[in-house]
Amino acid sequence: MPENVSAQSLPNICRYPCVPCMEPCQWSCTHLACDLLCHELCDRPCCDEPCKETLQCGHLCLGLCGEPCPSICRHCTPGFKDTISLLMMDEFDESDRFVELQDCGHVFEVSGLDTWMHTEQSGSGTNGISPKQCPECRTSVRRSLRYGNQVKTKLYQIEEVKKPILQFDITNQGIKLLQRKAYDEAVDKFVAAIDSNRENFDAYLGLGTALCLQSQFKEGIHFFQLVVQHSPLRCAINEIDTGKAFWGNSFLPRTVTKVRNVIQQTTACQPPIAREADKKLAMRALVQWAKALSNMTKFDAATRACEIVLKEEPSNKEAKETLQLAKAERQSRMEVVEAMMKDVGGRGHWYQCPNGHFYVVGECGGPMQVSKCPDCKATVGGQNHAPAEGNTHSTIDGSTYSAFSDRVGLGRFNHDL
Protein backbone atom coordinates (compact mmCIF):
# COMPACT_ATOMS: atom_id res chain seq x y z
CA MET A 1 0.00 0.00 0.00
CA PRO A 2 1.61 3.30 -1.02
CA GLU A 3 0.68 5.13 2.18
CA ASN A 4 2.09 2.40 4.42
CA VAL A 5 5.17 1.19 2.54
CA SER A 6 8.45 3.07 2.49
CA ALA A 7 10.07 3.65 -0.88
CA GLN A 8 13.19 1.78 0.28
CA SER A 9 11.23 -1.46 0.62
CA LEU A 10 10.00 -1.48 -3.00
CA PRO A 11 12.05 -3.97 -5.08
CA ASN A 12 11.55 -2.44 -8.56
CA ILE A 13 13.75 0.09 -10.31
CA CYS A 14 12.01 3.45 -10.06
CA ARG A 15 11.15 3.80 -13.76
CA TYR A 16 9.35 0.45 -13.87
CA PRO A 17 5.64 0.20 -12.93
CA CYS A 18 4.93 -0.88 -9.37
CA VAL A 19 3.06 -4.11 -8.71
CA PRO A 20 -0.33 -3.26 -7.10
CA CYS A 21 -0.59 -4.44 -3.50
CA MET A 22 -3.35 -7.02 -3.14
CA GLU A 23 -3.46 -6.98 0.68
CA PRO A 24 -6.62 -5.72 2.47
CA CYS A 25 -6.67 -2.00 3.19
CA GLN A 26 -5.48 -1.17 6.74
CA TRP A 27 -7.41 2.09 7.16
CA SER A 28 -9.93 1.47 9.94
CA CYS A 29 -11.04 2.91 13.24
CA THR A 30 -13.85 2.23 15.73
CA HIS A 31 -16.29 4.14 13.50
CA LEU A 32 -15.28 3.34 9.90
CA ALA A 33 -13.34 0.80 7.83
CA CYS A 34 -12.32 0.34 4.19
CA ASP A 35 -13.36 -2.97 2.60
CA LEU A 36 -11.22 -2.69 -0.55
CA LEU A 37 -7.72 -3.84 -1.43
CA CYS A 38 -4.66 -1.84 -0.51
CA HIS A 39 -4.00 -0.40 -4.01
CA GLU A 40 -7.63 0.67 -4.60
CA LEU A 41 -9.08 4.06 -3.72
CA CYS A 42 -10.66 3.74 -0.29
CA ASP A 43 -14.48 3.65 -0.12
CA ARG A 44 -14.79 5.23 3.33
CA PRO A 45 -14.73 8.91 4.38
CA CYS A 46 -12.30 10.39 6.85
CA CYS A 47 -13.20 10.08 10.49
CA ASP A 48 -13.20 13.46 12.23
CA GLU A 49 -13.96 12.16 15.72
CA PRO A 50 -11.33 13.13 18.32
CA CYS A 51 -8.83 10.53 19.46
CA LYS A 52 -9.53 9.11 22.93
CA GLU A 53 -5.93 8.03 23.61
CA THR A 54 -3.82 9.43 26.44
CA LEU A 55 -0.25 10.54 25.65
CA GLN A 56 2.79 9.45 27.66
CA CYS A 57 2.75 12.85 29.33
CA GLY A 58 -0.69 12.05 30.73
CA HIS A 59 -2.65 14.56 28.60
CA LEU A 60 -5.28 13.76 25.97
CA CYS A 61 -4.17 13.24 22.38
CA LEU A 62 -4.87 16.13 20.00
CA GLY A 63 -5.27 13.82 17.00
CA LEU A 64 -8.16 12.08 15.27
CA CYS A 65 -9.69 8.65 15.69
CA GLY A 66 -7.79 5.98 13.81
CA GLU A 67 -4.80 8.23 12.99
CA PRO A 68 -1.34 8.06 14.59
CA CYS A 69 -1.17 10.30 17.63
CA PRO A 70 0.67 13.56 16.81
CA SER A 71 3.81 14.33 18.83
CA ILE A 72 2.46 17.58 20.29
CA CYS A 73 0.53 18.41 23.44
CA ARG A 74 -1.56 21.44 24.26
CA HIS A 75 0.17 21.71 27.63
CA CYS A 76 3.67 20.30 27.03
CA THR A 77 4.50 21.94 23.66
CA PRO A 78 3.21 25.52 23.94
CA GLY A 79 5.79 26.73 21.43
CA PHE A 80 4.27 24.70 18.59
CA LYS A 81 3.52 26.78 15.47
CA ASP A 82 1.41 25.57 12.54
CA THR A 83 3.24 26.56 9.33
CA ILE A 84 0.01 26.63 7.28
CA SER A 85 -2.13 28.88 9.49
CA LEU A 86 0.91 30.46 11.25
CA LEU A 87 -0.96 30.13 14.56
CA MET A 88 0.74 29.25 17.83
CA MET A 89 -0.58 26.52 20.12
CA ASP A 90 -2.33 28.93 22.51
CA GLU A 91 -4.20 30.51 19.56
CA PHE A 92 -6.02 27.32 18.61
CA ASP A 93 -9.46 26.40 19.96
CA GLU A 94 -9.82 23.49 22.35
CA SER A 95 -11.75 21.59 19.68
CA ASP A 96 -9.04 21.91 17.01
CA ARG A 97 -7.45 18.62 15.97
CA PHE A 98 -4.03 17.90 14.47
CA VAL A 99 -2.46 15.40 12.04
CA GLU A 100 1.18 14.30 11.92
CA LEU A 101 2.68 13.30 8.56
CA GLN A 102 4.52 10.02 9.12
CA ASP A 103 7.05 10.59 6.34
CA CYS A 104 8.61 13.67 7.93
CA GLY A 105 7.05 14.11 11.40
CA HIS A 106 5.64 17.59 10.82
CA VAL A 107 2.28 18.34 12.48
CA PHE A 108 -0.55 20.53 11.14
CA GLU A 109 -4.05 21.56 12.14
CA VAL A 110 -6.35 19.18 10.25
CA SER A 111 -8.55 21.66 8.34
CA GLY A 112 -5.53 23.47 6.91
CA LEU A 113 -3.78 20.24 5.95
CA ASP A 114 -7.01 18.85 4.43
CA THR A 115 -7.21 21.91 2.18
CA TRP A 116 -3.54 21.57 1.22
CA MET A 117 -3.81 17.89 0.39
CA HIS A 118 -7.00 18.28 -1.65
CA THR A 119 -5.68 21.06 -3.84
CA GLU A 120 -4.35 20.12 -7.29
CA GLN A 121 -1.28 22.28 -6.87
CA SER A 122 1.98 20.62 -5.96
CA GLY A 123 4.40 22.04 -3.48
CA SER A 124 6.10 24.07 -6.23
CA GLY A 125 2.81 25.82 -7.09
CA THR A 126 2.43 24.18 -10.50
CA ASN A 127 -0.10 21.66 -11.78
CA GLY A 128 2.49 18.97 -12.32
CA ILE A 129 2.26 15.22 -11.80
CA SER A 130 4.24 14.76 -8.63
CA PRO A 131 3.64 13.15 -5.23
CA LYS A 132 1.85 15.16 -2.57
CA GLN A 133 4.37 16.95 -0.37
CA CYS A 134 4.62 18.22 3.18
CA PRO A 135 3.83 21.96 3.11
CA GLU A 136 6.76 22.67 5.45
CA CYS A 137 9.68 20.52 4.23
CA ARG A 138 8.45 19.28 0.81
CA THR A 139 8.97 15.63 1.74
CA SER A 140 6.78 13.37 -0.42
CA VAL A 141 3.72 12.11 1.46
CA ARG A 142 3.37 8.34 0.98
CA ARG A 143 2.38 6.89 4.36
CA SER A 144 -0.69 8.87 5.39
CA LEU A 145 -3.87 6.89 5.97
CA ARG A 146 -6.11 9.96 6.08
CA TYR A 147 -4.79 11.23 2.75
CA GLY A 148 -4.35 7.80 1.17
CA ASN A 149 -6.72 8.52 -1.74
CA GLN A 150 -4.83 11.70 -2.64
CA VAL A 151 -1.53 9.83 -2.45
CA LYS A 152 -2.85 6.94 -4.57
CA THR A 153 -4.33 9.26 -7.19
CA LYS A 154 -0.96 10.93 -7.70
CA LEU A 155 0.82 7.58 -7.76
CA TYR A 156 -1.64 6.30 -10.38
CA GLN A 157 -0.83 9.34 -12.52
CA ILE A 158 2.89 8.70 -12.11
CA GLU A 159 2.41 5.04 -13.10
CA GLU A 160 0.67 6.18 -16.30
CA VAL A 161 3.69 8.34 -17.10
CA LYS A 162 5.97 5.35 -16.54
CA LYS A 163 4.17 3.17 -19.09
CA PRO A 164 5.49 4.79 -22.29
CA ILE A 165 8.95 4.93 -20.72
CA LEU A 166 8.78 1.20 -19.99
CA GLN A 167 7.46 0.45 -23.48
CA PHE A 168 10.31 2.45 -25.02
CA ASP A 169 12.79 0.62 -22.80
CA ILE A 170 11.46 -2.85 -23.71
CA THR A 171 11.29 -1.99 -27.41
CA ASN A 172 14.91 -0.78 -27.32
CA GLN A 173 15.92 -4.04 -25.65
CA GLY A 174 14.25 -5.90 -28.52
CA ILE A 175 16.13 -3.82 -31.10
CA LYS A 176 19.44 -4.57 -29.37
CA LEU A 177 18.61 -8.28 -29.40
CA LEU A 178 17.92 -8.05 -33.14
CA GLN A 179 21.35 -6.55 -33.65
CA ARG A 180 22.83 -9.49 -31.72
CA LYS A 181 20.76 -11.91 -33.87
CA ALA A 182 18.96 -13.19 -30.76
CA TYR A 183 15.68 -13.35 -32.67
CA ASP A 184 13.61 -15.46 -30.26
CA GLU A 185 14.48 -13.19 -27.34
CA ALA A 186 13.73 -10.14 -29.49
CA VAL A 187 10.28 -11.53 -30.30
CA ASP A 188 9.61 -11.92 -26.57
CA LYS A 189 10.53 -8.29 -25.93
CA PHE A 190 8.42 -6.91 -28.77
CA VAL A 191 5.40 -9.01 -27.74
CA ALA A 192 5.79 -7.78 -24.15
CA ALA A 193 5.91 -4.17 -25.36
CA ILE A 194 2.77 -4.70 -27.47
CA ASP A 195 0.97 -6.39 -24.57
CA SER A 196 1.74 -3.28 -22.51
CA ASN A 197 0.46 -0.92 -25.23
CA ARG A 198 -1.45 -2.03 -28.34
CA GLU A 199 -0.51 1.24 -30.02
CA ASN A 200 3.26 0.73 -29.81
CA PHE A 201 4.00 0.87 -33.54
CA ASP A 202 7.76 0.70 -33.02
CA ALA A 203 7.26 -2.70 -31.39
CA TYR A 204 5.07 -3.89 -34.30
CA LEU A 205 7.82 -2.87 -36.74
CA GLY A 206 10.44 -4.62 -34.62
CA LEU A 207 8.33 -7.76 -34.31
CA GLY A 208 7.76 -7.91 -38.06
CA THR A 209 11.49 -7.48 -38.66
CA ALA A 210 12.35 -10.24 -36.17
CA LEU A 211 9.96 -12.63 -37.90
CA CYS A 212 11.30 -11.84 -41.36
CA LEU A 213 14.87 -12.42 -40.16
CA GLN A 214 13.68 -15.94 -39.33
CA SER A 215 12.17 -16.31 -42.83
CA GLN A 216 8.61 -15.86 -41.52
CA PHE A 217 7.85 -13.31 -44.20
CA LYS A 218 4.07 -13.49 -44.39
CA GLU A 219 3.71 -13.25 -40.63
CA GLY A 220 6.17 -10.34 -40.56
CA ILE A 221 4.29 -8.54 -43.33
CA HIS A 222 1.16 -8.63 -41.18
CA PHE A 223 2.84 -6.25 -38.72
CA PHE A 224 4.37 -4.00 -41.39
CA GLN A 225 0.92 -3.73 -42.93
CA LEU A 226 -0.59 -2.87 -39.53
CA VAL A 227 1.83 0.05 -39.09
CA VAL A 228 1.09 1.40 -42.57
CA GLN A 229 -2.65 0.84 -42.12
CA HIS A 230 -2.66 3.20 -39.12
CA SER A 231 -0.58 5.91 -40.77
CA PRO A 232 -1.11 8.71 -43.32
CA LEU A 233 0.11 6.22 -45.97
CA ARG A 234 -2.74 3.76 -45.35
CA CYS A 235 -3.97 4.04 -48.95
CA ALA A 236 -0.70 2.44 -50.08
CA ILE A 237 -1.89 -0.96 -48.83
CA ASN A 238 -4.31 -1.28 -51.75
CA GLU A 239 -1.45 -0.74 -54.20
CA ILE A 240 0.65 -3.64 -52.94
CA ASP A 241 -0.36 -7.18 -53.91
CA THR A 242 1.02 -9.55 -51.28
CA GLY A 243 -0.99 -12.69 -51.94
CA LYS A 244 -2.78 -14.78 -49.32
CA ALA A 245 -1.46 -15.08 -45.78
CA PHE A 246 -1.57 -18.36 -43.90
CA TRP A 247 -0.48 -17.75 -40.33
CA GLY A 248 -1.79 -19.84 -37.46
CA ASN A 249 -1.23 -23.27 -39.03
CA SER A 250 0.41 -26.17 -37.24
CA PHE A 251 3.61 -26.01 -39.29
CA LEU A 252 4.59 -22.60 -37.93
CA PRO A 253 7.75 -22.53 -35.79
CA ARG A 254 7.99 -21.61 -32.14
CA THR A 255 8.62 -17.90 -32.68
CA VAL A 256 5.43 -17.47 -34.71
CA THR A 257 3.40 -19.48 -32.21
CA LYS A 258 4.34 -16.88 -29.58
CA VAL A 259 2.78 -14.08 -31.62
CA ARG A 260 -0.33 -15.96 -32.73
CA ASN A 261 -2.52 -14.14 -30.20
CA VAL A 262 -1.12 -10.78 -31.26
CA ILE A 263 -1.90 -11.59 -34.91
CA GLN A 264 -5.45 -12.66 -34.06
CA GLN A 265 -6.12 -9.60 -31.90
CA THR A 266 -4.75 -7.12 -34.43
CA THR A 267 -6.58 -8.84 -37.28
CA ALA A 268 -9.84 -8.54 -35.33
CA CYS A 269 -8.92 -4.98 -34.23
CA GLN A 270 -9.50 -5.93 -30.59
CA PRO A 271 -8.88 -3.73 -28.78
CA PRO A 272 -9.18 -1.06 -31.50
CA ILE A 273 -6.11 1.06 -32.24
CA ALA A 274 -6.97 4.76 -32.08
CA ARG A 275 -3.56 6.38 -32.40
CA GLU A 276 -1.95 7.09 -35.78
CA ALA A 277 1.56 5.92 -36.64
CA ASP A 278 4.13 8.48 -37.72
CA LYS A 279 4.69 8.76 -41.49
CA LYS A 280 8.45 8.21 -41.07
CA LEU A 281 7.78 4.97 -39.21
CA ALA A 282 5.29 3.91 -41.89
CA MET A 283 7.95 4.45 -44.58
CA ARG A 284 10.38 2.27 -42.62
CA ALA A 285 7.66 -0.39 -42.42
CA LEU A 286 7.12 -0.16 -46.20
CA VAL A 287 10.84 -0.69 -46.85
CA GLN A 288 10.87 -3.76 -44.58
CA TRP A 289 7.71 -4.92 -46.30
CA ALA A 290 9.46 -4.59 -49.67
CA LYS A 291 12.41 -6.65 -48.43
CA ALA A 292 10.06 -9.40 -47.28
CA LEU A 293 8.24 -9.34 -50.62
CA SER A 294 11.54 -9.69 -52.48
CA ASN A 295 12.36 -12.76 -50.41
CA MET A 296 8.96 -14.15 -51.42
CA THR A 297 9.85 -13.37 -55.08
CA LYS A 298 6.97 -10.89 -55.26
CA PHE A 299 9.22 -8.43 -57.04
CA ASP A 300 6.47 -6.30 -58.58
CA ALA A 301 4.90 -5.70 -55.17
CA ALA A 302 8.32 -5.02 -53.63
CA THR A 303 9.05 -2.50 -56.36
CA ARG A 304 5.73 -0.76 -55.77
CA ALA A 305 6.34 -0.53 -52.01
CA CYS A 306 9.71 1.14 -52.62
CA GLU A 307 8.19 3.51 -55.17
CA ILE A 308 5.59 4.67 -52.63
CA VAL A 309 8.36 5.51 -50.16
CA LEU A 310 10.46 7.30 -52.78
CA LYS A 311 7.45 9.34 -53.84
CA GLU A 312 7.18 10.64 -50.27
CA GLU A 313 10.92 10.93 -49.72
CA PRO A 314 13.00 10.77 -52.95
CA SER A 315 16.27 10.75 -51.00
CA ASN A 316 15.40 7.68 -48.90
CA LYS A 317 18.62 5.68 -49.21
CA GLU A 318 17.28 2.39 -47.86
CA ALA A 319 14.30 2.44 -50.24
CA LYS A 320 16.63 3.09 -53.20
CA GLU A 321 18.92 0.22 -52.23
CA THR A 322 15.99 -2.14 -51.63
CA LEU A 323 14.51 -1.24 -55.03
CA GLN A 324 17.82 -1.87 -56.80
CA LEU A 325 18.27 -5.19 -55.00
CA ALA A 326 14.72 -6.26 -55.87
CA LYS A 327 15.34 -5.59 -59.56
CA ALA A 328 18.71 -7.35 -59.48
CA GLU A 329 17.29 -10.31 -57.56
CA ARG A 330 14.45 -10.60 -60.02
CA GLN A 331 16.85 -10.75 -62.94
CA SER A 332 19.10 -13.25 -61.17
CA ARG A 333 16.16 -15.43 -60.15
CA MET A 334 14.80 -15.53 -63.66
CA GLU A 335 18.18 -16.62 -64.99
CA VAL A 336 18.21 -19.48 -62.48
CA VAL A 337 14.65 -20.44 -63.39
CA GLU A 338 15.43 -20.49 -67.10
CA ALA A 339 18.51 -22.65 -66.49
CA MET A 340 16.52 -25.09 -64.36
CA MET A 341 13.75 -25.25 -66.96
CA LYS A 342 16.30 -26.60 -69.41
CA ASP A 343 17.50 -29.20 -66.89
CA VAL A 344 14.05 -30.49 -65.91
CA GLY A 345 12.53 -30.20 -69.35
CA GLY A 346 10.06 -27.34 -69.06
CA ARG A 347 7.75 -25.43 -66.72
CA GLY A 348 5.74 -26.55 -63.70
CA HIS A 349 8.54 -28.04 -61.58
CA TRP A 350 8.86 -25.23 -59.03
CA TYR A 351 7.29 -25.39 -55.56
CA GLN A 352 7.37 -23.30 -52.40
CA CYS A 353 7.72 -24.50 -48.82
CA PRO A 354 5.26 -23.29 -46.15
CA ASN A 355 7.48 -20.26 -45.55
CA GLY A 356 7.86 -19.26 -49.18
CA HIS A 357 11.25 -20.78 -50.03
CA PHE A 358 11.62 -22.32 -53.50
CA TYR A 359 12.65 -25.80 -54.56
CA VAL A 360 12.43 -27.93 -57.70
CA VAL A 361 10.82 -31.33 -58.20
CA GLY A 362 12.42 -33.19 -61.11
CA GLU A 363 11.26 -35.96 -63.43
CA CYS A 364 7.45 -35.79 -63.80
CA GLY A 365 7.10 -32.71 -61.57
CA GLY A 366 5.00 -34.49 -58.90
CA PRO A 367 6.62 -34.83 -55.43
CA MET A 368 7.27 -38.40 -54.30
CA GLN A 369 9.39 -37.91 -51.18
CA VAL A 370 9.66 -35.50 -48.26
CA SER A 371 12.66 -33.60 -47.00
CA LYS A 372 13.51 -30.47 -45.03
CA CYS A 373 13.81 -26.95 -46.39
CA PRO A 374 17.49 -25.92 -46.07
CA ASP A 375 16.42 -22.36 -45.16
CA CYS A 376 13.73 -22.86 -42.51
CA LYS A 377 13.65 -26.64 -41.86
CA ALA A 378 9.96 -26.88 -42.81
CA THR A 379 8.76 -30.07 -44.50
CA VAL A 380 9.09 -29.94 -48.30
CA GLY A 381 8.20 -32.34 -51.10
CA GLY A 382 5.33 -34.76 -50.71
CA GLN A 383 4.02 -38.27 -51.38
CA ASN A 384 2.24 -39.86 -54.33
CA HIS A 385 2.56 -36.73 -56.46
CA ALA A 386 0.77 -34.63 -53.80
CA PRO A 387 2.60 -31.75 -52.07
CA ALA A 388 3.04 -31.92 -48.30
CA GLU A 389 0.85 -29.66 -46.15
CA GLY A 390 1.61 -25.99 -46.71
CA ASN A 391 3.65 -26.64 -49.87
CA THR A 392 2.32 -25.06 -53.04
CA HIS A 393 3.08 -25.04 -56.75
CA SER A 394 4.95 -21.86 -57.74
CA THR A 395 4.24 -19.74 -60.80
CA ILE A 396 7.76 -18.31 -60.80
CA ASP A 397 8.48 -19.99 -64.16
CA GLY A 398 5.29 -18.70 -65.72
CA SER A 399 3.34 -21.93 -65.26
CA THR A 400 -0.19 -21.99 -63.89
CA TYR A 401 -0.09 -25.57 -62.56
CA SER A 402 2.46 -28.31 -61.97
CA ALA A 403 4.01 -30.36 -64.76
CA PHE A 404 2.58 -33.57 -63.25
CA SER A 405 -0.99 -32.20 -63.31
CA ASP A 406 -0.52 -31.32 -66.95
CA ARG A 407 0.80 -34.78 -67.80
CA VAL A 408 -2.15 -36.60 -66.24
CA GLY A 409 -4.68 -34.19 -67.69
CA LEU A 410 -5.62 -32.51 -64.37
CA GLY A 411 -3.81 -29.25 -64.85
CA ARG A 412 -6.08 -27.82 -67.53
CA PHE A 413 -9.14 -29.15 -65.73
CA ASN A 414 -8.11 -27.58 -62.38
CA HIS A 415 -7.14 -24.36 -64.11
CA ASP A 416 -10.53 -24.10 -65.84
CA LEU A 417 -12.26 -24.63 -62.52
Element pattern in H and E: EEHHHHHHHHHHEEEEEEHH
The radius of gyration is 34 Å
Beta strand %:
5-15%
**Number of helical regions:** 12
Instruction: Tell me the strand order in the biggest sheet.
Output: 4-3-8
Mean pLDDT: 82
Main sheet overview: 3 strands, antiparallel
Global morphology:
elongated
How many domains in all?
3
Protein name: RZ-type domain-containing protein
GO biological process, one term: immune system process
Organism: Adiantum capillus-veneris (Maidenhair fern)
Subcellular location: Cytoplasm
Describe the structure.
GO terms for molecular function: ATP hydrolysis activity; ubiquitin-protein transferase activity; zinc ion binding. Its main location: cytoplasm. InterPro entries: RNF213, TPR-like_helical_dom_sf, TPR_rpt, ZF_RZ_dom, Znf_RING/FYVE/PHD. By secondary structure, this protein is mainly alpha-helical. The protein folds into three domains: 164 residues, no CATH class; 152 residues, Alpha Horseshoe (Serine Threonine Protein Phosphatase 5, Tetratricopeptide repeat); 72 residues, no CATH class. Helix content is 39%, strand content 6%. The strands form three sheets. The chain has a three-stranded antiparallel sheet, with no helix packed on it. A three-stranded antiparallel sheet has the order 5-6-7, with no helix packed on it. Strands 1-2 form a two-stranded antiparallel sheet. α2 runs parallel beside α4 and α5 runs antiparallel to α8. The protein is elongated and about 110 Å long.
